[in-house]
Every structure is written in structure tokens, then in C-alpha cells.
Amino acid sequence: MSGGTLMLTVVLRHDQSRNLEQLQGRLDDADWWHGFPPEGCEVVSWVVAMGIGQIVTLRLPADRLAAVNVELERRAWGVFHTECYPTYDFVPVRERLTRESDARRGAVLR
Q1: Sheet harboring 42-49: ordered strands across?
Q2: CATH number at residue 21
Q3: By residue range, what is the domain housing residue 16?
Q4: Which pLDDT score is estimated for 62?
Q5: Residues in CB range of 75: below 8 A, 6 or more apart
Q6: Section 21-45 average pLDDT
Q7: How many CB atoms neighbour CB 3 within 10 A?
């Protein structure tokens, strides 16, 4: 895969069969905090959702997608259950749709 940039949302669901100290130990052993995300990937957001885990949105060149997958397999498995979703920034789209809706409604009200 080559060309272009994409956004990827990664849901890291905590393995609730382990306590926090066990999870942190596994992350340290896997060098998680230095190895993820891999080089060339920008962290757009990284939040904790209580009861779920962590939700990370990355912006990356399309040709780095395989590297993200490998680093998740190498560093996250055994600590998190991972889910990955291609995503995009909807804010500009929402703003455009709102303007278009306002224009349509204005045309109807006239």
C-alpha cells in the first residue's frame, strides 16, 4: 500500500484478567511507551475511556499501516485486545453539511 495519508483509530481494550501493575509490567517488557506508535505516525489523540481502555487516533502515511499492525502485535497483545478502524476528521464535513442544510432551509422559507 502506498501513497496518501490516512487516519486510524485503535481501541485498546484492557485485559481485565490482570491488575494494573501486571499490565504496566507487560508494557514495560514490550517497550510499549517507546515503540508505539512506530516512527512516521502522528498521534492525533490518545484518551482513556473508563470501562473500555484507551482510544488512540493516528495519522500516518498509508505505507506505514503494516508497521502499526506489527507494533500492535509485538507490543500490545497480552495487555490489550485491539480493534482498528480507519477514520477521518468529520468536523469540516459537518460544517459543510450544516451550511448546505441552512441554504436549503433558507430557500424553502423564502
Answers
A1: 42-49, 53-61, 5-14, 80-87
A2: 3.30.70.120
A3: 5-109
A4: 94
A5: 27, 30, 31, 32, 35, 36
A6: 96
A7: 7
